[in-house]
Amino acid sequence: MQTDLKIHLSGILDEDIKHVSSVHGGDISTAYKIETATNAYFLKTNQASSALNMFEIEANGLNLIGYTNTIKTPKVLVCDSFENHAFLLMEFIESKSPSAKDFEHLGQQLARLHQCTSENFGLGTDNFIGSLPQSNTQHSNWCDFYIHERLRPQLKLAHQKHLLDSAEIPSVQKMNNSLSPLFKNIKPALLHGDLWSGNYLISKDGTPYVIDPAVYFGHNEVDIAMSKLFGGFGESFYQSYAEIIPFSNETSARIDIYQLYYLLVHLNLFGNSYRNSVKTILDKYF
Ligand code: ADP
Prior knowledge:
This protein is of the alpha+beta class. The protein has nine helices and twelve strands. It has helices at residues 3-13, 51-67, 100-114, 142-160, 172-179, 221-229, 235-244, 251-270, 275-285, and strands at 19-23, 30-35, 40-46, 76-82, 85-91, 95-96, 127-129, 132-134, 189-191, 200-203, 208-210, 216-218. The longest helix has 20 residues, at 251-270.
């Protein structure tokens, strides 16, 4: 890390920085663990012109979830820029691999987060899914929200990137006909929005934290769908979750439909290796 930034951070923290080490695993920014005599901090930096806006949105998402007192998020300390670097400084969570009990707590706490509701689907502000923009324009109807703010923008982008032909993209009418019967009695729930296994941490004392959210009010099963996309979380996570918010006969079809969004995002970000998975769901439901 540049010396100037280190001095700047030390001034903000009002502590001497004793040690800085790189943290790997992120694909968007450069991350560091910063240690002082008594504390550890997590720092993300990014030189892109849009980075400060991205970090502010990330910080707002973390705070929004944190304020619910349902599931923890690392405490955000500073989001700012210094010289040509945007940076986001937060509490460092010393983590361990999850036990069945930890998964049980994660499931309970996620269900509590999902019990936070709102009048509409969406959010007052847009955010990002990975590095792609995610529109949170509000709708009172989940089917309209999911088609117009989730599936359509990603389908359009896939078409622009020549990853899907026009003939492979279902019409709004077709999507509406297939999805309306599956989307009955859905209430807005506060979602993490990008809940894959890289976006939770279990602290050394067994407290679950979520990071890197793409928050909005949506159907609770969207987070469950993402958690299952790449192998799934421990069984006790789903059991404890379902004791608070039960699944239904339509859940399995809805999980396919919600995974379609994330698969389209992967198709648009990482290319053709996700095409078959996208096509399988498009062909099955539309
Ligand atoms: P990016 O936004 O670049 O994808 P991430 O937020 O995914 O970066 O973070 C990169 C790595 O840092 C991940 O391995 C993640 O587990 C870890 N990490 C993220 N936030 C914290 C934190 N507050 N404390 C400790 N480790 C963290």
